[in-house]
Predict the 3D structure of the following.
Amino acid sequence: MVPDEKPQFQLPLGVVTVIDVSRLQRELQEIDEFMMQTALRESGRQPALPRSSHSLEEIAASNGLNLLQPADRKVLAQHLERLHSRAPTIHMSFAADPPATFLKRLITWLRHEIHPELLLQIGLQPSLAAGCVVRTSSKYFDFSLREHFEKQRQSLVDKLRELPVENNGG
Amino acid sequence: MLVAIGDKLRGYRQQIYEKVGLNDMQLVGLLIVIVAIILAAAAMIWEVLRSDQSKAGQKPATDSKVYTDAASRDVEHIFNDEFREELRNRGRLHFEKIIGENAMFLQQDLRLTTSELNDYMKQEITKTLKDEFAKYEQSIADAKQLAVESLAKTQVAIEEQRQLLGKQMEQQIIAERNRIIERFEQNMAEIINHYVLTAIGNQIDLSDQLEYILSDLEANKQAILEDINNGA
């Protein structure tokens, strides 16, 4: 489902989790500090520009922001702060650490169907075996293989009861 | 001697009374023999005494008296002391013979009585023993019957108890089996999940599960949307 009101801020697919947003905030803060130091130093003695991540460059490019401009950096910082504090977050737990491609496809679907600024919190539960567990602010969805077995328990019981009984006692 | 015989007879009679009790026929026969012996003895004694009295009472008064005296003298001559002694001896021998015969008869009667007494005692003892044995056998039979009935009752009780225990055991086994099955069924999902995780947990690729996860998310999309919108 696509929300009726399209948000103005574009969140790239590389930014998946709240941790990613926090990291972007830190990078943006470092750039801000660099720019402030550059303005105070003499010409010809400029320190090296902090290396920005692909995610930061992507989010700036997708939103038409120039990180060298203080106003754009301020706008990006405000958006990131808003995302960090108010963006809808879903907690998902998997049996193993999900790969990036998996997360990319998953967040694509979520932002397209649920909310365009949705963020994830990834957890790890090896006992799940397969599937995942989704927890929103007030709901809990168990899509694990264990839950699937539990739902199909009666079918398993029926199948077991259909098996011929061997008389081991002779 | 008669007194001694009488005492002896009384002693025998007393013994017979003690041993036999009342046996009228034998007692009457014995009394007849004793009376006969006494009468014979009394007759002989009376005869002897009468001859002595007739000799002492003669009086020479008349001719006949003379003749009588002569006869008496002849009698005295004939029945002198030797002849009297001979008569006494004969009487004594006859008496002894009679006594001996009666003693023999008495001995025979005593032997017969003893034999009959033995037979009677044997019969009585045999009868008593038979009665006692019959009672004993009856008691044994009663005791045996009681024992058999007691054993039968005990066997019935044991059989009932065995059947009751069998039923209880069967019920407990069924209950335990049902409990185990129920517990297995209740935890079947966990058991199978653990088995799958142990068996092929390392081979499950999370990327292969994406479609499955997305289908689950799609199925619950509305609920997730509502929760997020409410939260926002």
Q: What stands out?
A: DSSP finds seven helices and no strands in chain B. The first helix of chain B runs from residue 2 to 19. The CA atoms of residues 210 and 216 of chain B lie 10 Å apart. The interface with chain A takes residues 185, 188-190, 192-193, 196-197, 201, 204, 206-207, 209-210, 212-214, 216-218, 220-221, 223-225, 227-228, 230-232 of chain B (CB under 8 Å).
